[in-house]
Amino acid sequence: MSAPPVSGAQLAEVALTRAEYDLATRRLGRVPTPVELGVIGAMWSEHCGYKTSKPLLLRLPTAGLRVLQGPGENAGAVDIGDGLACVFKIESHNHPSAIEPYQGAATGVGGILRDVFTMGARPVALLDSLRFGPFEEPTQRHLLEGVVAGIGGYGNCIGVPTVGGEVYFDASYRHNCLVNAMCVGIIEQSKLTRAAAAGPGNLVLLVGADTGRDGIHGATFASVELNEASSERRPAVQVGNPFLEKCLMEVCVALAGDPRIVAMQDLGAAGLTSSSAELAHRGGCGIEMDVSRVSRRERGMTPYEVMLSESQERMLLVVRPEDAASVQGEFDRWDLHSDVIGSVTDTRRLVVADAGEVVCDLPLGLLIDEVPLRHPQAHRPAGQDAALAADPLSMAAPWPMGETLLRLLRSPNVGSRRPIFRRYDHQVGDDTVVLPGGDAALLRVRGTGGAIALTTDGNARYAALDPRRGAAIAVCEAARNVVAVGAAPVGVTNCLNFGNPEKPEVFWQLAEAVEGMREACLALAVPVVSGNVSLYNDTEGVSIDPTVVIGMVGHLEDLERRCAAGFARDGDAVLLVGPVGMDLGGSEYQRLAHGVNAGPRPTLDLDLERRVQAAVLEMIDTGLLASCHDLAEGGLAVAVAESCILGGRGAALTERLFSLAAPVVQAGLLFGESQSRFLASTRPAQVAAVRAIAERHQVEVRELGTTGGDRVVVANVFDLALSEVTRAYTEALVSGESGP
Amino acid sequence: MRFGIAVFPGTWSDRDCARAVEVLGHRSVPLWHRDRDLGGVDCVILPGGFSYGDHLRTGAVARFAPLMESVQEFAASGGLVWGICNGFQILCEAHLLPGALTRNVSLEFRCETAWLRVETVETPFTRACDPGAVLAIPVSHGEGRYVADAPTLDRLEAERRVAFRYVARDGLPVGDASPNGSLRDIAGIVSDGRNVLGMMPHPERAAEALLGSEDGMQLFRSVVEAVAERSAFVAAP
Question: What pLDDT digit, counting tens, does each position of A110-155 carry?
Fold first, then answer.
């Protein structure tokens, strides 16, 4: 094993700096072979090695009474009672989707599904958090179309319902769309399968798809900026086969808890390289493999290509030699191919041979524990303070309030997502109790009487003004979605989508955002159990806005104690739970009316947030609320309109506060995005009981008006037909135009 | 009674169908695509999914599964065979039902509640329904547009073999709101022996009020009634 000195081009291909290369050479005591160079590059990439984000991520709170598995495994797991675990994770597939939207999104879904069923859990739900450039631009709609088709193409075929998600459009994502996919599974706790190899002499099985040249360097590709030549990296995008994955999933779920399975690990970024290294490293073992035993779909593949291929739908299993034949038989039944490609050792080394000739022999510690961490400079961007100093209330309201509401409802960031979610099977599995379109999806947990609530959220406009506050709001907003259906937040998974962290401004954003997440998770007592980081979302040097996507799981013990967002009856009192506010900085109104993102970001009092959520949970749990909806983009007026549309009935707000104010203040009250608020409805006779709960939590409740009729009214401000309001909302993602 | 639920690689409504049968208080057994034994079941369900990954065409490969040989014989001898979604596509490919299912006119996958009018109660699958009743039953497919030549469609109508038609919520013609653009708004048809039903919508997803509708149970109940009477139908070998 000897190799010539490495060229700059070779280093660029594996995304290693010269200094990192020298470090590897020093630690190794020799020059790495070409295969070893590829392995080191992949394992030390941001995607696999988290070399920039690791020190920051350690700040996140990961412990909790319900946590069964925190970060470090394929997915996190929380206890949802009755001996069951909820397994979940969110992951990005941004770079591939920007280049090849259909396959990029499809394989994003495939990858996150594998992370969950690798742990033995049957996937029960998918969610997708998407970001594109302006909806009005045909290129962006083309990307949206491809991504939605890809998500549907994979999820619909495999038979796991896509129950929720979100999509925002903003110029910041024009050249870097974001595709974050979340998967949630359920399993008996005793059957949770880990990915830690054990037992030297045990065999390593590679199962599923044959290995091809697709996706080589996917991990390193995801760890560099995009540029004009990026479309030439299409070979770095993988191709998905949901049918194969469906078969693989059925066998893996059936094998969960089977004593014949020592460990199971899916192949994701950096393929065989990272899966084998992590499997062995977690178990404190070593692993040796012979790539000549790997079934190929192409001739002439080199060991380097086999080790770095990101061909989809593959799994590694560790089994005892005496069980290998019977385990292979389980896969044969589903026409899935399996090869014994190596065995577990006690050397703590990753040894790869090609027909007996060793081509790679590296200590696992070097690949995983000794990833050279980068500690970039952090600098608050120069323009940050100027943006914050703007006064949104000094910008005159351009339209009457009624027209403003219609424009907001027609905004692609606010209007109905039905044109998207009706292209996803959101019901297969027969457990979806609250369908997409409300605050959080609610899925029954069979045999328990309980349910899980699922959501993703992440407003990047607030984060652009203040990453710390924006990240904290993303956590709170996701928790509010879950609370609005009556569930208690129990766990977080997150995807940090940022620009190039080597830029001090971006690293500052990242560091601030992690602190914001930490503060909010601690305040609400929800641990982070899994997550993913997607950096280098830049094109031609321009970074996306910092985008923290929070996936949240809530638990509802008694399904009967749930709540929905639509007004349920005529004659109910409409209530605002939480403070009256008029935060227009970073609001959707501001984008629409003034085309800017400026001013103080919404205030956030984490203690108030906690109390409001606790009060609302208690109101729902005691059966007092007929509807509950959280206030988000578009503020109070949009929430009222949505509760009317979802409930199929109007409402009249008679609260005098709105009509007495000056127009810009009216806009602030109606469309401001102040935090920690819910819109609820209840029988008039129960208002006192609602107030009593609120008072105990020191939370404001204000009676705004009454449900019923076929108009949406704010007395002396606007009076719109519900049909007109509904039409505006429904057309938002249909017309391709944002103005009326 | 016992339902047999076919499982091809890629089938995904098998568990939902089993659940609906369980809600009704009956039993079901899975029927593996490679087996030929139908295990003496009273009704075979070919459930929804993407059998064999929709390779070639939807249902085109499943038709050749060993299990389907037994299903063909079972149907020929008067046994009850119920194809749902992909199952309907398989039945058409297997020529147990006429016509074909093509890409939705929207060219998009559609998952939403559809409204079906019961066009005939003279089938073992609809006998417990009220004539003309409108049922809320979800659809979930990309290729559910029923097509056949005009003489075939005329014959289906004349022989009262159109079991369900897509309608608006109020029972009026569905028009542009059709989930797939099926000819004559056809959502389901029966064979000339009336013992084979193919339908695109998913009655098993309308089995519990909790999930939005229990209208689909009328169909499962019909089958149970029909089997109890054993009038014209036989059990599988």
Answer: 999 999 999 999 999 999 999 999 999 999 999 999 999 999 999 9
- Interface-testing mutation among A425, A444, A730, with chain B (most B C-beta atoms within 10 A): A425
Point out the residue among A243, A426, A435 whose CB comes nearest to the CB of B10.
Answer: A243
CB A456 within 8 A of CB A127: yes
Report DSSP letters for B99-166, one per residue.
SEEE--TTSS-EEEEEEEEE--S-STTTTTSPTT-EEEEEEEESS-EEE--HHHHHHHHHTT-EEEEE
A positions 155-184 inside 8 Å of B (CB): 156-159
Nearest CA in chain B to A245: B10
On whether any CB of chain A is under 8 Å from the CB of B37, the answer is no
Q: How far apart are CA A408 and CA A625, in angstroms?
A: 27
Q: Compute the count of residue pairs across chains A and B with CB atoms less than 8 Å apart.
A: 78
Tell me which amino acid residue A276 is. S
Distance CA A649, CA A188 (A): 42
Give residue-wise pLDDT tens across range B166-224: 999 999 999 999 999 999 999 999 999 999 999 999 999 999 999 999 999 999 999 99
Catalytic residue among B17, B43, B85, B92: B85
Model confidence at A594, pLDDT cuts 50, 70, 90, reads very high
Contact A435/B19, CB-based, under 8 Å? no
Distance from CA of A423 to the nearest CA of B (A): 5
Pairing mode, if any, of strands A314-319 and A261-266?
antiparallel
Chain A closest CA to B226's CA: distance in Å?
26
Residue with tokens 């290129």: A139
Q: Are A678 and A578 in contact (CB under 8 A)?
A: yes
CB contacts, 8 Å: A334 with chain B = 9
CATH superfamily ID and name for B2-235 = Class I glutamine amidotransferase (GATase) domain (3.40.50.880)
Active site residues of A: 47, 93
Strand partners, A222: none
**pLDDT above 60 (res A738):** no
pLDDT at A215 over 90: no
Dist CA A347 CA A269 (whole Å):
24
CB contact under 8 A, B54 and A433: no
B22 part of the active site: no
Count of CA atoms in the C-beta half-sphere (13 A) of A511: 16
* Predicted TM-score of the model (pTM): 0.95
Most confidently predicted of A300-309, A671-680, B53-62: A671-680
Contact A75, A88 (CB under 8 A): yes
DSSP state of A211: B
Reply yes or no on whether B141 is catalytic: no
Ranges of each domain in chain B? 2-235
Q: Mutate which of A313, A423, A428 to test chain B, going by most B C-beta atoms within 10 A?
A: A428
Question: C-alpha dihedral over A493, A499, A504, A507, to 10 degrees?
Answer: 0
Tell which residue, A712, A686, A677, A691, has the closest CA to residue A576.
Answer: A677
Measured between alpha carbons, how far apart are the two ends of chain A, in Å?
Answer: 69
CB B202 within 8 A of CB B137: yes
Q: Which of B7, B8, B12, B34 is most worth mutating to test chain A (most A CB atoms within 10 A of its CB)?
A: B12
Instruction: State whether B10 and A246 contact (CB < 8 Å).
Output: yes
Write the pLDDT tens digit of every residue in A30-64.
999 999 999 999 999 888 888 888 889 999 999 99
**Cβ-based contacts of A152 with chain B (< 8 Å):** 109
Rounded CA separation A160/B12 (Å): 9
How large is the average pLDDT for residues A70-80?
93
